[in-house]
């Protein structure tokens, strides 16, 4: 037993260096998108509901939670001025987003995350769905952006989500409600 | 006790630690043992053994830390109704040379649905749902499927309505057929 103590300690240190930290979830601020197309402002207010997201566990891979994606979507809509207000509930329009796919690599140098989100905008007054769209996006994070794998994966997640929100907002900006 | 030079003290400490000598036998061994030379074949071999032990310990620790538990999860869109689905089309993933699309279609048929598969992104005739998937493989002695993601799209709008994922690290590995079975079972239960 005494003979293996040194190598085990060395092994633990090397392993710790290789793994290099715990995973952290995607940050809403980093997923906020900017719309470059002209925005058609809608007079009504909107509420947001997100499902299909996942919480990040410390020992697992970085994920995108429902709350983080909803916050990013809310901030992006407010920034673009797409609706008069983003309400918590009881708004004229309800935007639902279902995160249907977050395809992450298991290893590699450059991490490409592919994301698919299904959006639906419903007029709560008439009960009609005024817009639906299934949007695919992807983003590649390189070792130059982050050396640690857990951080690189988070950046790739955030980039894919940001691009997805940007596409959704661009589509919604063209709507005349 | 005689005063030893620093190098001798270190050597004694090492040999006592390794259990090769004890404090008393050191006095005898010291007189007999040749001066430590790292280049001699015996010491070289000893060094190689230590290096090997470090490497094995590294691999064991990395395996312990990296081997997560198997997970199986599914989620569906709030308004999705999967009960009425009868016909499916499985889109072959680009670069899939394991025939996972055929396994999924075969499993769906086994579950009582009508299922076809192919390379085209859209089916030739209308179906209730389109199935897409992503399979991830790893090598550990043999190749094994570490992760299988399956998405279910509405046949009409194309919107993703449900998804399921099975993740099985090396120690909990299962055959692709079993992973397909558990993912579809979880998603369509």
Question: What would you note in describing this structure?
Answer:
The complex is a heterodimer of chains A (177) and B (189). Chain A is of the alpha/beta class. Chain A is 33% helix and 25% strand. Chain A contains 4 helices and 5 strands, in the order H-H-E-H-E-E-E-E-H. In chain A, helix 3 (66-80) crosses helix 4 (149-173). The longest helix of chain A has 25 residues, at 149-173. In chain B, 25% of the residues are buried. The model of chain B has no long low-confidence stretch (mean pLDDT 85). Chain B has helices spanning 6-17, 23-32, 41-66, 100-110, 176-187; strands at 71-76, 87-91, 114-118, 129-140, 142-154, 160-167. Chain B has 3 domains: 1-33, no CATH class; 42-66; 71-187, Double Stranded RNA Binding Domain, CATH 3.30.160.670. In chain B, strands 1-6-5-4-2-3 form a 6-stranded mixed sheet, covered by helices on one side. Chain B is of the alpha/beta class and 189 residues long. In chain B, strand 4 (129-140) and strand 5 form a beta hairpin. Chain B contains 5 helices and 6 strands, in the order αααββαββββα. In chain B, helix 4 (100-110) crosses helix 5 (176-187).
Termini separation of chain A (Å)? 74 Å
Helix-strand string of chain A: HHEHEEEEH
Strand order of the largest sheet of chain A: 2-1-3-4-5
Please tell me what the overall shape of chain A is: elongated
Largest interface: A-B, 32 and 36 residues
> Which range does the strand content of chain B fall in?
25-35%
Number of strands of chain B: 6
Percent helix of chain B, as a range, is 25-40%
């Amino acid at each position: 037993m005494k003979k293996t103590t040194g190598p085990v300690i060395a092994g633990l240190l090397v392993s710790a260096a290789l793994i290099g930290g715990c995973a952290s979830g995607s940050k809403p601020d980093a997923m906020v998108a900017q719309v470059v197309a002209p925005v058609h402002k809608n007079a009504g207010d909107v509420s947001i509901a997100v499902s299909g997201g996942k919480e990040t566990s410390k020992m697992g891979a970085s994920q995108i939670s429902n709350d983080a994606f909803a916050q990013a979507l809310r901030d992006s809509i407010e920034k673009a001025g797409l609706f008069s207000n983003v309400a918590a509930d009881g708004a004229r329009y309800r935007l639902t987003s279902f995160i249907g796919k977050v395809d992450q690599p298991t290893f590699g140098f450059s991490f490409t995350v592919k994301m698919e989100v299904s959006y639906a905008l419903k007029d709560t007054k008439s009960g009609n769905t005024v817009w639906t769209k299934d949007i695919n996006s992807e983003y590649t994070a390189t070792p130059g952006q982050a050396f640690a794998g857990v951080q690189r994966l988070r950046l790739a997640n955030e980039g894919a989500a940001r691009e997805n929100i940007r596409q959704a907002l661009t589509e919604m900006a063209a709507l005349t409600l | 006790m005689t005063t030893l030079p620093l190098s001798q003290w270190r050597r004694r400490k090492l040999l006592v630690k390794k259990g090769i000598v004890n404090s008393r036998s050191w006095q005898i061994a010291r007189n007999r043992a040749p001066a430590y030379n790292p280049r001699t074949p015996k010491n070289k071999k000893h060094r190689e053994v230590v290096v090997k032990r470090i490497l094995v310990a590294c691999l064991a620790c990395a395996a312990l830390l990296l081997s997560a538990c198997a997970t199986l999860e599914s989620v569906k869109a709030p308004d999705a109704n999967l009960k009425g689905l009868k016909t499916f089309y499985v889109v072959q993933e680009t670069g899939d040379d394991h025939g996972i699309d055929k396994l999924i279609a075969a499993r769906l048929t086994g579950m009582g649905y009508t299922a076809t598969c192919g390379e085209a992104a859209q089916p030739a005739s209308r179906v209730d749902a389109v199935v897409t998937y992503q399979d991830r493989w790893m090598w550990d002695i043999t190749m094994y499927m570490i992760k299988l993601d399956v998405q279910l799209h509405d046949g009409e709008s194309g919107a993703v309505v449900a998804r399921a994922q099975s993740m099985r690290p090396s120690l909990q590995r299962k055959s692709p057929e079993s992973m397909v079975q558990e993912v579809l079972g979880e998603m369509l239960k």
